[in-house]
Write a structure and sequence with these properties.
alpha+beta; 5-stranded mixed sheet; 5 strands
Amino acid sequence: MKQDTDLRIAELGLILPPAPKPMGVYKPVLVIDKFLYVSGQGPLLPDGSMIKGRVGADLTLEEGKNAARQVGLTMLSTIKANFGDLKKIKRIVKTLGMVNSSTDFEGHPAVINGFSELMAEVFGHENGVGVRSAVGMILPSNIAVEIEAMFELY
């Protein structure tokens, strides 16, 4: 059953940032058959700035988790701006979460939970939780987290 995702976002009191413009040669979203692929998104704030820093050095695990949640809000904004109606999304299928972290940081999955928990709040546990990978790396412009995802469409 389709849910009113925009209504759910409003009920949760979520504020979506402006959709970012591509910073390279790629499409923000691409639809193939019944799947929506979303390019890597960063933690864009409503004022247009990014959450930056390395988790385990500049940021705590909790700050990293909040950055991952912000990536989720950015991704929803990107989908709305480039695809349209969020009601067309049936479920999240796959998430690749990349954490800008210090070399000794080991809590990458806990950071990406910020994104996954948001998707579960918005789409419900059954449709908001999919398969996932969480890894650490050096990210462009020192952004704290980058996430790409794949969604199934109705």
